[in-house]
């Protein structure tokens, strides 16, 4: 499965209207100094940001979109990370060689230094902050100073999957580009392009459960998502009859593989969220209705939060994943208890 990184990806699907708006802003010379690209994970936010950056750095007037051919010199240099007028900021490695959990102030200080320089090629200087929600407080404050006094001919692109985690003062200084989930046919087409070994039925299944995210669909494809989805469906269908023996059997089926645990817990939470969402809209199917029973939907939202919290704590603290699965299924079973 060969998937280009966002900086090297020539393909962007599902966001034509946003792309056309950016192309028109370039043509009209109405470019805000900072743009906040938001939306769910894995839908092409960073791909759009680098596509926008390449178009700015290449100069000229765009057509209806921002595309550059992969053999264009600017495309090649951006893909290689060697363009002098582009700076990418993201989480970096610490002194022990481990990826930091946050973007730290030292990373953001590079932005101010970079923007003080004259554009090497006489055009724009562009900064892409990939994962802006990971800015810690000091880093966010340092970025705010840059946004408050932007230099001329500079564009900052903040890519963010959780805009609520950004300081309101940062959000208020950016023009927002809100991207929505991809359509299921788009996800299916991209799966066919990048995951050639998937059977058509499996690809359709993954496209249906990916919630509009090709990134999620590809992670599921790489991590045995079809079998994990079947297991999650089985658990949700029998949630009211899950005892300790069955819970341990599910944990044994997953083994101690970290990817299997993460995939299963994601799918379990996603299935529960879909049931609650469909029930709230009056569109729950019989299986979803049977799962939710007569419990208030708010109580199921609490169960969802509990599952996500358990997954996060297990993964971040390297806790026993088998025990976490058992605990998660117990939480789900408790949710099915009848209201007296």
Task: Please describe the topology of this protein.
Layout lengths: L15 H13 L5 E5 L6 H14 L14 H8 L5 E4 L15 H12 L8 E6 L6 H12 L5 E7 L7 H5 L2 E4 L5 H11 L5 H10 L4 H9 L2 H13 L6 H11 L3 H23 L5 H7 L4 H20 L4 H15 L5
Parallel strand pairs: 1-4, 1-5, 2-3, 3-4
Written account of the structure:
- The protein is 54% helix and 8% strand.
- With 340 residues, it is an alpha/beta fold.
- It has two domains: 6-178, P-loop containing nucleotide triphosphate hydrolases (Rossmann fold), CATH 3.40.50.300; 223-335.
- Strands 2-3-4-1-5 form a five-stranded parallel β-sheet, with helices on both faces.
- α5 (137-148) links the parallel β3 (125-130) and β4 (154-160).
- α11 packs across α15 (321-335) and α12 crosses α13.
- 37% of the residues are buried.
Low-confidence stretches: none
Helix/sheet category: alpha/beta
Give the rounded overall mean pLDDT.
92
CATH architecture of the largest domain: 3-Layer(aba) Sandwich
Q: What is the fold-level CATH name, i.e. the topology of the largest domain?
A: Rossmann fold
The total number of structural domains is: 2
Instruction: Give the quaternary arrangement of the chains.
Output: single chain
Brief description of this entry?
The protein has 15 helices and 5 strands. The model has no long low-confidence stretch (mean pLDDT 92).
Essential attributes:
Rossmann fold; 8% strand; elongated
């Amino acid at each position: 499965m060969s998937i280009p990184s966002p900086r090297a990806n020539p393909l962007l699907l599902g966001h034509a209207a946003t792309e056309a708006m950016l192309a028109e802003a370039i043509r009209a010379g109405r470019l805000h100094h900072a743009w906040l690209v938001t939306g769910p994970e894995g839908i092409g936010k960073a791909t759009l940001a680098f596509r926008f950056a390449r178009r700015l750095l290449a100069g000229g007037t765009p057509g209806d979109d921002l595309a550059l051919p992969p053999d264009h010199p600017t495309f090649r240099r951006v893909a290689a990370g060697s363009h002098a007028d582009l700076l990418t900021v993201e989480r970096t490695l610490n002194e022990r060689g481990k990826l930091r959990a946050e973007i730290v102030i030292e990373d953001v200080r590079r932005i101010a230094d970079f923007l003080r320089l004259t554009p090497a090629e006489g055009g724009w200087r562009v900064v892409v902050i990939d994962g802006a929600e990971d800015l810690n407080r000091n880093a966010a404050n340092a970025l705010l100073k840059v946004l408050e006094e932007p230099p001329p001919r500079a564009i900052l692109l903040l890519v963010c999957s959780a805009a609520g985690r950004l300081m309101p003062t940062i959000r208020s200084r950016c023009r927002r580009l809100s991207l929505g989930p991809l359509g299921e046919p788009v996800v299916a087409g991209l799966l066919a392009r990048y995951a050639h070994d998937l059977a058509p039925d499996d690809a359709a299944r993954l496209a249906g459960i990916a919630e509009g995210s090709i990134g999620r669909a590809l992670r599921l494809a790489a991590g045995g998502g079809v079998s994990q989805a079947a297991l999650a469906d089985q658990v949700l269908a029998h949630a009211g009859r899950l005892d300790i023996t069955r819970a341990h059997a599910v944990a044994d089926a997953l083994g101690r593989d970290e990817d299997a645990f993460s995939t299963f817990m994601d799918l379990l939470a996603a299935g529960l969220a879909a049931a609650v969402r469909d029930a709230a809209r009056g569109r729950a199917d019989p299986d979803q209705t049977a799962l939710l029973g007569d419990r208030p939907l708010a109580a199921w939202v609490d169960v969802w939060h509990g599952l996500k919290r358990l997954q996060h704590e297990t993964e971040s603290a390297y806790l026993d994943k088998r025990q976490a699965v058992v605990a998660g299924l117990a939480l789900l079973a408790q949710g099915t208890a009848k209201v007296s």
